[in-house]
Amino acid sequence: MQRAFWYMGLAGGGTALFLSLVFVGSILLTGAQAAPAASAAPTDHSGHDPAPAAALVEVNPEAPAYVLRDPTAPERATGEVHEIELVMSEGLMTVAEGYEQLVWTFGDQVPGPVMRVKVGDTIRVTLKNPETNTMAHSIDFHASLVAWNDEMRSINPGEELTYEFVAKYAGVFMYHCGTAPALMHIANGMYGMIIVEPTEGLPPVDHEFALVQSEWYLGPQQQTIDITKASAAAPEPDFVVFNGVASQYLDNPIAVPVGETVRVFVLNAGPSVDSSFHVVGTIFHSVIKEGVHLVEGNTGNWGSQAVDLSPAQGAIVEMRFDEDGLYPIVTHAFNFVGRGAIGLFKAGSGGEPMQGGH
Ligand SMILES: [Cu+2]
Predict the structure, then answer these.
(1) Quick one: pLDDT band at residue 31, thresholds 50, 70, 90?
(2) Distance from residue 288's CA to the centre of ligand 1 (Å)
């Protein structure tokens, strides 16, 4: 329904068209039109081409609908010692409308579960590789200070290991499978976010979300990703996504009230493409990126328009939406916006559908 509303009155379909209407300007318009989604391919009922870039993998209209990932950030875990059981599974996942891949996961989801602790806490993860799996796997918590050849070792199907560490530094950290080739294991879904707050905790805000950007290099339907594509020196992902699934928050906008403070924990899991995290129509008044804090109310009132995150970098950004309406979430590397790296914050009622041309 959201999409029907969103595209109502538009002559064509496609994310690229949406962009061309939002971003008036010849440079942006040219970029958007060059995106594969702007092709003359027939659109589906929703009005957007679900296969913008996956030219070499045939769309499967019978693929199950994707499972919408709740973007709400979890509360910080209570207590100081956290026992976490993490099962690494291998199974099918719809990563974009019409595209199903055989993914490897932490906790049956891509990205893996968002964990949230504070400095000083002990995290004791019991990592399990079920007998039914086909591959060895492992885990590497960037929030930890441990030896690579101990806790990060690979375990075979049927084995488990305990990975224990004390969180000593605050930040938005990546965790991922490091089993060789790590590129394959990350690109096939084995990554997630762990938030470590300062000992005293983050100041409370009205709303908190967690968004993980990552790439899909599609393999054939229901098979693992294409490691040859993923290995290219200049990688061309079929999809760049937030929280595992292409355009899921374009289809299902994230509702927020007008004027309240929204905090987003952002991680770029890569494996290979940089992110320029941007929310159209707002300015980040607070950014904590890799330990560096842009503080609201600073002398000069400096603000931030986009946060650059290389693979395995994270940030906490805060913003407010001053007007009722829609605020697109993108990486401002616009070649990827037509490939699934787009969502929407819907502030208040969401305003009126955008009218007219440009
Ligand atoms: Cu793995």
Answers:
(1) very low
(2) 30
